[in-house]
Recover the amino acids of this structure.
């Protein structure tokens, strides 16, 4: 345990804002930055990072998961909804959870393990996306119905003295004190 913590303390913290630098630079430190990102994501020391972890948390796999999500939502909604790419930061959080819960960490059949983990990630995210889409469109429909409604909500009362073309009724005190004379 202390060996892992020592490895974390010696290296700089690597967050998602540094991700483009780690993956898109061609300098000699880019591989070290990628390893640092994976190490911080799965909380393992550099010696224990497997090929499975490197491939699962790579940018190309995140892109593949995003494409799977877009395609699944499109198919489930009968070609009605097309969603944008999900943020890599939020996606990596779900990927980390799936990694901790379901990773077998075997040194063979890496491709099959990655496919299985990717399916788990998609199945974790997909119900929330579908629910959010349905809630959003339900809200928009109710909002449009309310705007088209004849009944105006939250309207202020209109004074009877300011309306034009109507007869102003006398107050009760005028009637009983005899100050009112009918204009009919």
């Amino acid at each position: 345990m202390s060996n892992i913590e020592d490895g974390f303390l010696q290296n700089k913290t690597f967050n998602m804002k540094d991700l483009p630098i780690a993956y898109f630079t061609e300098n000699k430190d880019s591989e070290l930055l990628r390893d640092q990102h994976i190490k911080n994501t799965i909380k393992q020391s550099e010696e224990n990072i497997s090929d499975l972890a490197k491939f699962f948390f790579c940018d190309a796999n995140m892109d593949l998961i995003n494409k799977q999500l877009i395609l699944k939502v499109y198919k489930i909604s009968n070609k009605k909804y097309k969603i944008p790419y999900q943020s890599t930061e939020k996606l990596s959080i779900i990927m980390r959870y799936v990694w901790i819960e379901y990773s077998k960490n075997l040194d063979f059949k890496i491709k099959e393990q990655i496919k299985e983990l990717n399916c788990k990630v998609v199945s974790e995210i997909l119900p929330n996306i579908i629910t959010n889409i349905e809630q959003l469109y339900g809200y928009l429909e109710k909002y449009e119905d309310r705007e088209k409604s004849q009944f105006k909500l939250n309207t202020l009362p209109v004074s009877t003295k300011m309306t034009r073309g109507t007869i102003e009724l006398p107050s009760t005190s005028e009637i009983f004190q005899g100050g009112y004379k009918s204009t009919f």
User: Anything to note?
Assistant: The CA atoms of residues 65 and 118 lie 6 Å apart. The radius of gyration is 32 Å.
